[in-house]
Amino acid sequence: MRYLILFSGMALAFLLTACSAPKTQESTKNSAGLSESSDPSRYQHERDFAPLKKIDADNIADAVPKIEPIKAAGNKSPYMVFGKVYHVMPDAKGYQEQGKASWYGLKFHGHHTSNGEIYDVSGMTAAHKTLPLPSYVRVTNVANGRTAIVRVNDRGPFHGDRIIDLSYAAATKLGYIAQGVAEVKVEIIDVQQWQQEQLAKQHSLPVKAKTAWLQVGAYTQETTAQSVRQRLLEEFAWPTSVESGVDQFYRVRVGPVAEQDVSAITTQLLAQGFPPPVKVKP
After folding, report:
1. 261, 197 in Cβ contact below 8 A?
2. Domains of the chain (ranges plus CATH)?
3. Quick one: which of 65, 141, 242, 264 has the fewest CB in 10 Å?
4. Chain centroid to CA 22: how far?
5. What contacts 32, CB < 8 A, 6 or more positions away?
6. Is the peptide bond before 78 cis (omega within 30 degrees of 0)?
7. What is the reported pTM?
């Protein structure tokens, strides 16, 4: 086929084997009562392959982390593939791992991922055996230092010792399409922390600017404080945090903001039903 002429016979065989993985197959119950993939022939193509039209690595944007609920689809635990049992992580906080990454392409394009979405080779997505779906991770190619943020929405890879399977676009951004596999470092992204960092960057102020912090409320329950903070993040583009002290109160604060903006911010908070904020020290 014409799209195969870019590779030598041996390199091509290695690459296609590297990219191949049993994605979102139909399942049956085995004797242990676990779901096990059973239909590797449901795809139109027997082997995986890359698109004819290449993607410019410099123009590939990262996935944008956002808070999403962990739904039942794709998160059944335990589950079994090729006779091996896997347990989905109940909480991925602090997860990081180094190992081999592969990628998957047009064989799986247009088919359902494990959580019911449609795989797109141009999307910044990935497959992982045990992370909750969806999750966001930062992947770094150890060989060249390139990084990419991807959204994990599929299960795999189930070949060899690979720890993650990236979309064609993500692997292109990391620069290992030709090799088929690469040594990578995978780190879970704390979405709330990531959003806070992005807001801080967007609202970076000159060193000599006069700044202020506003306290929106103080709560005895951290979950309540985090809920208020999330509402602020959804409705306003201000740096927002939850601070705790020795008195065991969780304080929701907006800041740093420019001193000259305090009056306008207060007006906006009151208009949205928040209590009058109090100016506090950082």
Report:
1. no
2. 2-189 (2.40.40.10), 192-280 (3.30.70.1070)
3. 264
4. 21
5. 80, 85
6. yes
7. 0.63
Q: How many CB atoms lie within 10 A of CB 148?
A: 26
How, if at all, do strands 211-219 and 278-280 pair? antiparallel
Give the integer Cα–Cα distance in Å for 265 and 77: 46
- CB-CB contact of 241 with 202 (8 Å): no
Q: What is the band of 3 on the pLDDT scale with cuts at 50, 70, 90?
A: very low
pLDDT at site 49: 52
CB 51 within 8 A of CB 6: no
**From the CB of residue 18, how many other CB atoms can be counted at a distance below 10 Å?**
24
Residue 141's alpha-carbon distances to 131, 146, 174, in angstroms, are 20, 5, 6
At residue 162's C-alpha, the angle toward residues 158 and 163, to 5°, is 95
The DSSP output letter for 88 is -
Average pLDDT of the residues of the chain: 81
How far apart CA 157 and CA 187 sit, in angstroms, is 17
- Nearest partner of 205 among 243, 251, 265, 261, judged by Cα: 261
